């Protein structure tokens, strides 16, 4: 149990030390490091090291009475967390047709931190097809990562640590499951809930 608390402490220390990614107008952040986001137009916390965010452009485009809502397919962006707060900026869009052409393959997103652009890679998230092709998006991202051998930083590091600390497989599985649940809860919780939980961690360390 004490070992589990130590691992949880290390996990949340890495989370708390990371910076925020702030989406600009027209951007929805759908998934962060494998966990679906509740408030998709709000800033999200990044973890130290490699980050994977799934984003979508969704905005009213055009002029006057010709305005229409355009919604792109989800794109997977992968990048190393910057040392300071970052902003995610969408390409400039002038019309519905322009949006349609821009988001067909590799739109020019900009991730900016401390007046510098952050290097990233991107790809379109493969849909499941049919009605509501991106339903259960968290599951789609997990499938994508499994097929492409993508291992996300904090959770994978903790899994390795847990395996070294405890050789009992059943015990390890339980611990990893608890940590993954905590990660999901923390990402989806409000700022007030996070502050309360941070205080709880400090009080129990």
Automatic annotation (TrEMBL):
Domain of life: Bacteria
UniProt keyword Signal, yes or no: yes
Keywords recorded for this protein, A-Z: Signal
Keyword Hydrolase belongs to the record: no
Any Pfam family hit: DUF2057
Similarity-based family: Belongs to the UPF0319 family.
Entry protein name: UPF0319 protein BTO23_06740
Organism from which the protein derives: Aliivibrio sifiae
